[in-house]
Design a protein that fits this description.
A seven-stranded antiparallel sheet has the order 1-2-3-4-5-6-7, with no helix packed on it. It is mainly beta. It starts with a strand and ends with a strand. The longest helix is centred in the middle third of the chain and has 16 residues. Strand 3 and strand 4 form a beta hairpin.
């Protein structure tokens, strides 16, 4: 779902997304962003807030253990897959500037502050999470031909 407004001077956009699956080891994802910007020829500025969450299903004990070595191996593999899934969260704020220095050509500068939850594994294949803040600077050349 998205909503957009654009005038000669200002613009705003909002987009929301939800993805879910019946496959047990695929996470459900909820994401969205909102951005507000201002045009002042030949420049465009914007500030964008984005958020992304994924939630994994809890494993159900569907494979019996102790009946045969083959089923035990299958159950172990099943549990390894579910133990490797971790819920994630990411939020970011981005400040951007675009300079249209020539017809159909622009240079873009974006600076993002990203707060995220990162999975960490130890030697026993168990996972936990750690909050981390990352700064990202991007520079790009955009052209239409």
């Amino acid at each position: 779902t998205s909503l957009s407004y654009d005038s000669l001077n200002y613009f705003t956009r909002v987009e929301l997304m939800k993805i879910s699956s019946d496959i047990p080891f695929l996470p459900s994802i909820t994401a969205g962003y909102t951005t507000i910007g201002y045009y002042f020829n030949p420049f465009t500025t914007h500030i964008t807030y984005a958020k992304n969450n994924s939630e994994s299903a809890s494993p159900s004990n569907e494979i019996p253990i102790g009946l045969s070595p083959q089923l035990d191996q299958l159950a172990y593999g099943y549990q390894v897959i579910f133990n490797s899934l971790i819920d994630t969260e990411k939020e970011s704020i981005t400040l951007g500037l675009k300079w249209d220095f020539k017809t159909n050509m622009a240079i873009k500068f974006d600076f993002s502050i990203i707060d995220c939850v990162l999975p960490i594994s130890n030697q026993s294949d168990t996972f936990r999470s750690k909050s981390e803040r990352v700064n990202l600077m991007q520079v790009g050349l955009e052209w239409v031909f």
